[in-house]
Amino acid sequence: MKSAYELKREALDGLTGHWGIAIGAGLVASALISGASFRVSFPVDTESTSAAITGGVMNLKILVVTLLIIAAAFAVSLVVSVAYSLFSSVIETGYARFNIDLVDYREPSFGSLFSYFRYWKNIAVAGVLKQLFITLGYMLFIVPGIIMYYNYAMVPYILADDPTISGKEALAKSKQMMYGHRWRLFCTGMSFFGWIILAMLSFGVGMIWLTPYMNATHAAFYKDLISEQPTYTAEVTE
Fold first, then answer.
1. Rounded to an integer, what distance in angstroms lies between the CA atom of residue 159 and that of residue 162?
2. Closest CA to 23 of 166, 213, 238, 223
3. Are 106 and 47 in contact (CB under 8 A)?
4. 55: Cβ–Cβ under 8 A, 6 or more apart, which residues?
5. Segments of the chain scoring below 50 in pLDDT
6. Cα(139)–Cα(189) distance, integer angstroms
């Protein structure tokens, strides 16, 4: 298995000559995955609501209308949140493809970010199950949540290589691949700690370069896992 230094060296080699597109893809992916948030809200007059509740039958219509508005706001917010979650999962898979191509010394394509929408069902199921297990882990205790996070860290890369597999199978493969390697991935991430501090001292500007570097290293980690597991067959989707 490759050391953190070797994985980072491999990532830098892949980024050589591709820093421009890597930075652009990283910025767009970050914005689409976690930078934007959709919030739908409706103004509700709490004083009128309170008066409708305490005013008796005469204000029953006002109370019903107010409750319907609140219910509509909640329903729309829920639908938009789910849709955004599905969208971000697809972009995350596309960004994983982009970084796999980098460390495979292929010509990375910005279009990779948007190339998995036809597989949105499998990706959506994987994303929902992954988030559910991680959330349940954190609810039980911090440590189980962390373990779940590392168990399923390879899910986007597995789906990027073979988006036709089911979400459940993607999670199972990630868990199998990460068995005995969670600590190694943690240490690989921690090897960037000093760079993260420097990036923060630059008011976050350094993250523009650090983010592609970290994600390419993560993809190199995935490729290293595959090379050590001959029973795992990756089908690259062009």
1. 5
2. 213
3. no
4. 62
5. 36-46, 49, 52, 57-58, 232-238
6. 24
Query: Coil, strand, or helix at residue 108?
Result: coil
Q: At what angle do helices 4-15 and 207-227 cross, to 10 degrees?
A: 120
Which residue in the block uniquely carries the two structure tokens 């943690």?
Answer: 186
CB 138 within 8 A of CB 145: yes
Q: 154 CB contacts (<8 Å, ≥6 apart)?
A: 173, 174, 177, 178, 222, 225
Q: Check residue 105 and give left, alpha or beta (phi > 0: left; psi -120 to 50: alpha).
A: left
**Separation of alpha carbons 103 and 127, rounded Å:** 24
Q: Rounded distance, CA 89 to CA 77, Å?
A: 18
Distance CA 76, CA 209 (A): 37
Long-range interactions of 128-132: CB distance < 8 A, separation 24+: 128/85, 128/167, 129/167, 129/168, 129/171, 130/155, 130/171, 131/85
Of 187, 100, 185, nearest to 151 by C-alpha is 185
Token pair 């609140």 is found at: 70
d(CA 43, CA 19): 45
The dihedral over CA atoms of 103, 104, 109, 114, expressed in degrees to the nearest 10, equals -80
Only one residue has tokens 């070797």, namely 6
pLDDT tens-place string over residues 182-202: 999 999 999 999 999 999 998
The C-alpha atoms of residue 224 and residue 218 are separated, in whole angstroms, by 10
Q: Supply 36's token pair.
A: 């934007």
Q: Is the entire prediction scored with pTM above 0.85?
A: no
